[in-house]
Amino acid sequence: MLSEYNGNNLIENGILYFYSSWVSSCNVPKDNLNFINNNLKNVDIQKINTTKYYNIKKNFEIKTIPSFALIKNNKIIAKLDGMSNKITLNKWIVEHLN
What we know:
Order of helices and strands: EEHEHEEH
Shape: globular
Strand order of the largest sheet: 1-3-2-4-5
Largest sheet: 5 strands, mixed
Distance between the termini: 19 Å
Strand content: 25-35%
Number of strands: 5
């Protein structure tokens, strides 16, 4: 399920996608997230606007925008910084979930 963080609860397991609306390179990964959402139905994806929720970016020690964090039981198990194509992103997710 693909959702936008709204200030309430972060997902405990899945992918956090950190982006900023003013960063043009953040627009491409959004399309890739739709691809992942359609192909990996059991993976929750939550988008976090770091301009609006800067503290979350800081708490997860995210240095690059866009970035992806794979979390399990509220802990980051893998990070992927920068823009990735959908094939690379899909492979990264599958590798870390197995």
